Amino acid sequence: MTAPVRDHHIGMIVPSSNLTMETELPRMLRAREEVDPANRFVFHSARARMQHVTPEQLRAMNAQAERAATELADARPDVVATACLVAIMAQGPGYHCTAESSITSALRACGSDAPVVSSAGALLSGIEALGARKVSIITPYMKPLTQAVVDYLEDAGVEVVDALSLEVPDNLAVAHLDPADLRTHYRKLSLAGAEALVLSACVQMPSLPSIQPVEDELGLPVLSAATATTYRILQSLGLPPTVPNAGRLLA
Predict the structure, then answer these.
(1) Which of 124, 145, 202, 250 is catalytic?
(2) Looking at the 3D structure of the chain, how many domains does it have?
């Protein structure tokens, strides 16, 4: 007999200018459907206004998260993922716990029992799942925001061996960066002692087409904010966190 098909509804809180969260995550989960057709994925988004990756706009976007969660609650999602990694990390170490808690409270107030995943918390979980304590990272951010990400990771016990800032302040422009360029960018990083490479510490910077090729070339685990978020979404749904050709974390 053919196994019954189950639809999993995924709610996403995304910056208004984000294009990549709604392309890379579905692309990974569509690839997973091809090897596990009994589990399908449906996506629902709520947007929070943000155009430029500045501390002021990041704080303003965070303030919209509960409103976005309330809107998503009406769709009764099975999991909710909030997508802007730097918006959370720029608020200081451990803030993903605060953000996830406030979104959870908003969902519960509307009768939704969906678990909440943040890309910031997911990146930490992904690095831990790989057994890595030292990483090198690439971000699209200006250097001060990249330093906030470095500080956040190091406060959580992850040593950042080296970090490369591409310094693109316009969030929409970040979405249009060519992911193939990351195959060159990573060569500018020191990887001495690194146990994993975060090819994109941002869910808006496209990286999926380069994750597996760079990992195959380096021999080190390669992950991104998007692959880590997908990993946590699948865990939250009680499904094996596997996606073909998306790096060791999802192998």
Answers:
(1) 202
(2) 2
